[in-house]
Amino acid sequence: MQSTSGRNERGILLGCAFKGGRSDASTETLRGLSLTTESLVEHFSREWHGSNTPKVAKVIEIWRPRNAQDRFRNYRKKLEAVTSIQELRTYYGSQCICDLGVKDTAHCEWESCGICNVIKSCFSRLAFGARYDYGSKYGDGIYSYHNPALADRFATSSMSSPFRAILACDVVVDHNGLTPSRSDESINDGERVFVRNSDAIVPSYIILYTK
């Protein structure tokens, strides 16, 4: 059994719900969706560098409520006032112990379901109520990845679901240079993106896939 302290390089979220309309899109109907969704699938496939090339089955768009949007926007403005910034698309993985997306897009209430806890709290709570990923690389914070195959290392799924699930996120970081320090508020080392403040990252899509 996992401890309530979380696992290495997991993360956080903010207060989210599924957006209606396109919440159950299969790959067969992607042509009828927005260019944004099609571009996401292309980005996911292009950035995947690892064995067992995945096949995207469904893309679920996450609607972010105003308070979560405001926190992200205000954090970005605050950071922009003191430094130059980057806004990046990254991928976040955690265990998903329910059948999310198999029959519908309803999230579960299991405390141990990392993906649903992240969706419900929008990065302010993880699996088992943990507030941060406890990573040895840069310390406690939220770790997401440019390469979805790296996020996939943390994407365990329910035995009754045919899918694996990871989150496509938008994250704001400052320019740190090539020698990041453990004292930095945000770090983009080319492989992982680390932020200490959950306001710096928001979830945008759930990607369900097989490999």
TrEMBL record:
It comes from the Eukaryota. This is PARP catalytic domain-containing protein. It comes from Grifola frondosa (Maitake).
